[in-house]
Each structure stands twice: as structure tokens, then as C-alpha cells.
Design brief:
By secondary structure, the protein is mainly beta. It is built from 2 helices and 19 strands. It starts with a strand and ends in an 11-residue tail after the last strand.
């Protein structure tokens, strides 16, 4: 099934209107996932396309086995301009995050079982975005102080029911951000909030923060359960217990924590060392 996302005009500067991108989830091979459980962030991917949006070539700074993963993913992306007079130029994607398959990462668009989370009303959101309605992927403050968007979307099955986890980000024009993760039960084309998995963010652009991809939260769906591994800012320098991993089941439409374990996430340095 093809998927879609509205890209910012910065990715297609020659066009007055943004483009639509259609692409699969950016996931790692099993071998790479075993070596990189936190995922891999690729700095730059450049896609050349035909007039019909078909990708003809993929250029990336990824190396080794990851280069082949990026090449395969990039060739499955499709673009369609919303402006018939748009001169197509190479599309540059910055900071594309590839996750282990168990994370349940959703591709473009941010849609699960008929629910488009890029056109959705959120309550209980992070920071200044406590109540926002996204349209075509974003919601902007009337005075330009902040912008809300879906940073990542994950989906899987919990207790036999389809669940989507939305990481909503509230960006303060490059001066830090707040983000929060909410879980939704998805049935019959409708999404109902099932709980919150935590909030994270950077008070300023140079704040200590866990590395990408993932940042402050990592999601996984396994054996009918949802696992959320969440960074604890208050213990950012604790090399043994700066993360909390919680397993969740679903009961009566709400997430229920089964257990929680403090630990240090392998492969990541303590955030205060960054």
C-alpha cells in the first residue's frame, strides 16, 4: 500500500506548493537491528525523480550495509507535486531515522487503519501544543511562536487490538522543543485515546538530550504487548537507571502498566555526557 506525507517547502525550494511523498516505513534489516537496537539516523538522502514522481536515483552519506538499506527504501518513495507548474528538482531529506522492525514504525503518511494522524485534533499535547489540530501535517501558532507536527508514528497490536503511538512535537523555532507520546486505540476508522507514555524535550537547542533516532522514547510491539522505554531527565547522569522500560497491556480501552524496570539503555551514552 502506498503512503503519503506533506513535505515542507524547504525540501522542494523550486515549488511554491509542498509536495506529497509516498513511502514505506524506514526500517532496518534484522542484522542491522541486532547491532543497532536504538536505530540508525541517516544525515542526508538525496532523491532524483522523474516528472511522474518515480525515484530514479538515491544518493546518501550512509556507508556499508546501511547504504543498501537506504537505496532500497529510497527507490520505493514516490512524489507528486501539488503545483502543475513546479519544476522538479532533486529532493533532499535530512535526518531520516531507520528503526528496528519490532518498533512498528509507520511510513508516509502518518496513517493507521483509516485514521490520518496528520489531520487530527489532539488534546493533552506537550508544552504550548496542549490543544492543537493538525492540517496537512502541521499546526502553527498565529504569531509564529511554535509549530506542532507528528515526529514519529508507531503502530502494532496490543491485547489483540490495533494501537497507534503518536509522538507529537511542539517546536519553538529552533529554540528547543517539547514532545509527548500518546497511545490511541484504532477501530473502524476512528482513534480513541488510550493513555500517555510520557513527555520529553529540550529546554533550548543546546540542552542535554539522548541521541537520535528515538531521542527520549523508544517504542516496541512484541507478543501482544507495548513496550515504552522512556528517558528520565531527572536522572540524566545516572549510568545505571536513566531510562525506565514499561510493558503495557490494554484493558477496557486503556493502557495498563504491567511492570516497569529502571536501567541504562545499551548503545547510548548518558545524555549529560553529550
Amino acid at each position: 500500500m502506498m503512503l503519503a506525507l506533506v513535505l515542507s517547502s524547504a525540501l522542494a525550494a523550486a515549488c511554491e506548493q509542498p509536495e506529497m511523498a509516498f513511502g514505506p516505513p524506514a526500517v532496518l534489516t534484522d542484522a542491522l537491528a541486532a547491532r543497532h537496537p536504538n536505530g540508525i539516523s541517516v544525515d542526508t538522502i538525496t532523491l532524483a525523480t522523474k516528472a511522474n514522481g518515480t525515484v530514479t536515483s538515491v544518493t546518501t552519506d550512509a556507508q556499508g550495509a546501511m547504504q543498501a538499506v537506504v537505496q532500497t527504501w529510497g527507490k520505493r518513495v514516490r512524489y507528486a507535486s501539488q503545483d502543475v507548474d513546479c519544476d522538479r528538482t532533486p529532493i533532499v531529506l535530512n535526518g531520516v531515522d531507520f528503526y528496528p522492525p519490532s518498533s512498528g514504525l509507520v511510513g508516509f503518511p502518518h496513517a493507521v487503519a483509516g485514521v490520518d494522524f496528520d489531520n487530527f485534533a489532539y488534546t493533552g499535547g506537550p508544552g504550548n501544543c496542549a490543544k492543537v489540530t493538525l492540517q496537512d501535517g502541521t499546526a502553527n501558532d498565529s504569531e509564529g511562536a511554535y509549530q506542532a507536527y507528528v515526529q514519529e508514528l508507531f503502530a502494532g497490536t496490543v491485547s489483540g487490538t490495533k494501537v497507534a503511538v503518536v509522538v507529537l512535537r511542539c517546536e519553538y523555532n529552533g529554540h528547543g522543543f517539547d514532545s509527548g507520546a500518546q497511545a490511541f486505540v484504532v477501530r473502524s476508522g476512528k482513534a480513541t485515546k488510550a493513555g500517555s507514555l510520557g513527555e520529553g524535550g529540550m529546554a533550548s537547542a543546546d540542552s542535554a538530550f539522548p541521541g537520535w533516532p528515538g531521542g527520549w522514547i523508544h517504542i516496541a510491539f512484541r507478543d501482544g504487548l507495548l513496550y515504552a522505554d522512556v528517558w528520565d531527565r531527572s536522572r540524566a547522569c545516572d549510568r545505571n537507571a536513566d531510562w525506565v522500560s514499561t510493558a503495557y497491556a490494554l484493558r477496557n480501552g486503556k493502557l495498563v502498566a504491567l511492570n516497569a524496570t529502571r536501567h541504562h539503555r545499551l548503545g547510548l551514552d548518558p545524555a549529560c555526557d553529550r
